[in-house]
Each structure stands twice: as structure tokens, then as C-alpha cells.
Amino acid sequence: MKQAFLTFKELPFQLKHAGFCLFPEMSRIGIIRLLVISVLLISANSYGQKFNGLALTPPMGWNSWNKIACDVNDKILREAADAMVSSGMKDAGYTYIVVDDCWHGKRDSLGFIHEDPERFPSGIKATIDYIHAKGLKFGIYSCAGNTTCAGRPASRGHEYQDALQYAKWGVDYLKYDWCDTEGLSAVGAYTTMRDALSAAGRPVVFSLCEWGTYKPWLWAKDIGHLWRTTGDIAAKFDSNVDHGSWTSWGVLSILDMQEGLRQYAGPDHWNDPDMMEVGNGMTVNQDRVHMSMWCMLAAPLMAGNDIANMSDETKEILTNKDVIAVDQDVLGIQGFKFAAKDSVETWFKPLAGGDWAVCFLNRSKKPVEVSFDWVATRVYDDLAKRDLNAGETEYSLFNIWTKAVDGTTKKALKAMVPGHDVLMYRLKKI
Ligand code: GLA
Is 382 assigned a catalytic role? Predict the structure, then answer.
């Protein structure tokens, strides 16, 4: 009977015969060596990978920067963790408590970074343990340069040590900024940190924050799980804030800057239009626009307000499970602007199970009547290859903000959208 597999003796001959063997006289020992080297090379290579599968839907959490800026400490982070649970945010899907800039103390004589002992009197590990005990995850902030944007010690030249320290503390998420980086290549610096995290061995969501400067959507898919697409957000709706040497951007400006980027996003690699300003001073309508559009964009949802002391309206916006379901949809397809006429934009986002989200955004202060004939209008998503085709498929119109079912797609829509507000539906296949 013919053997189904090769004996070891036959291997060199077979390889040679098949034309694979570069060294015809290679002995069995030689082949074993070759195999061992290949295995070592393959496993060494897997060190240089991001932790796959940690952000299959856009990450959700809270970050200290937008409201607290540099004033972070142990108490504030514990209060944020408490509030995330008691407000219902945790149940709604928010997971990460992220400390942004200014937690840092000094490096020790060996070069390891430590927390600021005054802000974290029991050590930052105790804060992190507290957050973990609440069933939440912890994120930290550093920067690829010599110093962070607020002038604290950053990771340049200390990447592997910092990654080890974070792993020791139990860090689950790293936001990595881009200040003070003269002479550095963005691809190189972010790859180095990815490799350092990978070598440290603790799974970490890696959030790139180089403000879209070097178009990370073109190169960061295998480096990080999300990348900022713009400069910093401001708690403004249709204006920007001029800081002299730089500008922070209002919600509509940031929205406009997402044009042309949707093809780069998907499960485990998201465009990040920055952390949210919901609850930080815009009107309730404007906050609703902000939340709705971030969800249409499949954006990471990082609340940036004082969640321990927020109003009921803010809480309702942040915890609306139906709008969050649009953001967290498993297909991970970023929505697209279908039409823009006068002050109204119409956005669509294909969802799992044949559903769609649609959002009519009124950019002006004045109420506007919108009309949409579902059957007569062809809505086709060229990227996802999905056809709404309301002529053949009937959908019910579930209003994501009022929870009413406003009829079906059989009948053309006519409705008022208040100034600076949205009308947002989930079209559910009947
Ligand atoms: C940069 C980032 C912000 C924030 C600050 C902290 O501006 O873009 O999100 O992290 O630094 O200093």
C-alpha cells in the first residue's frame, strides 16, 4: 500500500524533486534547522502585530480631557467610574475610563515612568484596580514625542519601558498623542509603540492621536484600532475656536472633515472624529445632532463631560440605546451623506439584518420641512453594495429619539425638523 505521507528520510529528496530545495545536498539536520528558524521567524513576526479583535465595534467610554483638562487625579477617576455605572452608561455599552494628559510624575533612575504622587497618593495601580472592580476598563494617555502636549514626560525612547509599566498596572487602552515629535516619522513612531505594547503582552486598544496630519487612515489599519482624523474638538456647534497658533473645531466643522474617509473604517480600525462634547455647553438639540452624527459615522463614543453631575437631558442623549445601536452595528459600516439641499443633509447607514439608519440633519437655526419619497428615490451604497429599494422591501420608520413608529416607507415622508436638530429613523425591514 502506498504511504499517505512522507517519511523523514524522503523529505530532502521530495523537496528537491518538487523544485523547492535550494540546497540539493541538504541533510535531515539541515532541514530541521530550516524548519526551526522558520517557526522562530514566524512567531517573532507575530510580536509586531496589534492586538486583533479588541475593537470590533467602535470603542465606548469616558475621557477626562474635554471637561477636566489637566486637573486629573484619583478621586475624579473613581467618581467617573462610579457615575458610569450609576448613570446607566455602563449598561448602555460604555466601558473605558481614560485618563488623558497630566497624570504623569517623573521617570525613575532606570527610566520607568511613575504617576504624580500628589494626584495619585495610593498609586495609579490602586485607581485602576478600583475601576476594574466596577467591571470597567482603564485607558491611559501618552505621546510619541519627548513631552506630552501639556509638557509632561512622553514616551520617545522609552516606548518598551512604558508599555511594560502599563501592562504591570493593568492598562487596557492607550491614547497616543503627537506633540513634540520633531524629526519623527509618524508611521515609525506609532509602529514602535504598537510593537512595544505587543511585546509587553497585555491586550491594549491602541488609539492614534496625530490629528490626521499624516493621513493615518492610509497606513494605520494594522497599527491601531482607531485614529483621530482631525485636530481637537470644541464644545461649539457651527463655529470654531481660534487659539492663536491652532484652532479647535466645532461639531459641524469636524463632521465636514470626515468627507472621503468612510472607505478606510471598519471593525477593529475606526476613523475617530474626536471625543464628544455632549453636555459641555451646547443646547440639547445641538447635543442630539452631535450624538446622532457620531453614531452615523460609526465613531468611537468617548463621553467628555462631567458624568458625575450631568443633567437628565445629557444622560438621555448619551444612553439612548437605539442611537448607540446604530453606532455599534456589527457590520461596522460608516454612514454616508446621501444628499445636501439648503440647510438639510440626508445621511444613510446600512445596518445588519437589512435595516438602515437615516438621519436628516438641519444645520440652520430655523425649523425646516423635509420630504422624502422612499419608493421613488434610489438609495444605493456603492461601498457596501447595499440597496434600500423601498419599492420592493417595506420598512417601518422607528424614530430613534421619540421612539414612535412614524408609519412605513410606503408613504412619502413630510416632517418638520427643528433648528440645529435631527430627525433620525431606524428603517426596520417588515
Ligand atoms: C492634544 C490632543 C487632545 C488632548 C491634549 C492633551 O491636543 O489632541 O485630545 O489629549 O493633547 O494635552
Answer: no
